[in-house]
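INPUT
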Amino acid sequence: MTDVAAAATKRRAPRNQWWDVWDQFKTHKGALVGLAVFFSILALILIGPWFWTQDPGYVNLRSRNQGFSALHPFGTDQLGRDMLARIMAGGKVSISVGLTAMLLSITLGTTIGVLAGYFKRLENLLMRGTDLFLALPLLPLLLLMVTLFREPLSRTFGPETGIFILIVTAIGATSWMQSARIVRGSVLAVKEAEFVLAARSIGTPPRRMITRHILPNVMSPIMVSATLGIASAIITESALSFLGLGFPPDFPTWGRLLFDAVDAMQLYPARVILPGVMISLTVLSVNYIGDGLRDALDPRIRGR
Amino acid sequence: MFNFALRRFLIAIPTLLIISLVIFMLLEAAPGDPLGDVPLTVPPDVKEKMRAALGLDSAWYVRYFLWMKQFFWVEPLNLVDYVWGTDYAKGMQRVISFQSRQPVMQIIAERVPQTLTVVGMSYLIGVSIALPIGIYSAYRQYSWFDQIGTLVSMIGFSVPTFFSGVVLIIVFAVKLHWFPSIYDTTHRVTDWASFLKQVRQMAMPVMVLSLYNAAQISRFMRSSMLDNLNQDYVRTARAKGLTERVVVLVHVLRNSLIPVVTVIALGVPTIFGGAIITEQVFKVNGLGQQLITSIHSNDLPMVMTLTFIFAILIVTFNLIADLLYGILDPRIRYD
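OUTPUT
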């Protein structure tokens, strides 16, 4: 028995634990497909514009409302703008909003979670605050923030950057609570471990304690909630755009394209379906990646 | 249990007060002007008088406490008057909408039924679909039923309701002409034919929302069943010779329902939020649509009251979920 185990460890070269995670991740078929789909969408919106050089804002009134053709594979909209180019441009905005908002919310959530979990004095205050935020009616408040502050922000930073900052901040500020709770829970568990006691007994200051010992050990829940955060941020952004409260009209995002197409959906349903399918595919693939990641990062499942 | 309930209840009150202050300050900090639509030809002193008439000339704390008094004292009194025909609230200033000059509560009362029928119905249907699916896919984990259920529920909460709603409209209203695409809120149910019409116009919004709810709840049900199916007491129950039916549907199900019931309670206020979007898609003039129109027209009392009502819903259902958990699981009460 011990010989077999020893042989197994000898055969396997020492390697990073992330390879184990990847091995487990590979067994989740849905997650692999999700990863492939997500990367092809990223490729479409990042590399696509190099090959498809039509300007998404180019108005050509003579070729408006066209169906699928070689010149315009996805047709054109009511002003004759090429839909393929617009979907690429819209995807860039939608996904960058999703990523930035997720980064903001995960930074906030992790900071608050770690502080509340590590420092006993702050715990009560921070967690009451988190509970308070969880009790806020988030969608109405988001709508409110976006409507009320869009004018001054677009005046100071220009219409595009201003709205971008506004939407990212609004989404980030209203979505950090779940990750704060999860991170706090994991920090509380890790804090009781013996290596933390050992580190403390050799006099490690709290700052290094958190960055060296606590944070690396709570990475898995953070990564999972970051992945799922991208999905929900993309949905929130498109919902805002769909309600007409997102980016300005000449600045396409997937939600905005969908919103613009809804008026003409009886005649040109394809224009509604395309951006909607892009949103759904992106969110679905990200959710599957998150699902696979959760399984892969769970050490109880990994060894099996 | 009483102590537990009392403690939870006492936390809820300051939470609500702080939330109302947060919403008020957010509205206060906003640069929007309710008189922004007044033409520039109106002389400044008239504009000043208009501001005073709307009560905008006093300091923010005066307005905040006035709103509090109106919301927590005058409006309940009005309700009492309305129900019992008394006149306690006579001559008291109610919360008035800037836009329509009607009492805010009256507008809300007109719109609640639309929202409640659509949202309530879809939640009921969603839950009643989700529970059997969750139970069966946990019992037959990794079977084809479970795989398909997982895929469908993943799609269910990945496809945003504003897209699935629009797709349903294109398919069922535009192509097939089965259901009307616009919800007719003036429709009254009087006989069988009008009832059928009501069912047909509710079908699509209810379908969209219940798919979305069912997707989430069936996932919870499944994972909660899975947690319980491997417990020792299940093995004991089987070893005693109980039938599989009794083991799963009595022993396991009752224990796994505990977290699911609280999730269902917690989900009620969020679907009111989600209904904002669905109402916009299907043009249901419920609370969500009212909120959006009043945000656009800077109708501060309306926005404040509506948002606060959403907050009350959330806090109340959090409280209900806590209490339910305490009742169902005695271990929770003694934390």
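end of record. Residues 147 and 245 of chain A are 7 Å apart (CA to CA).
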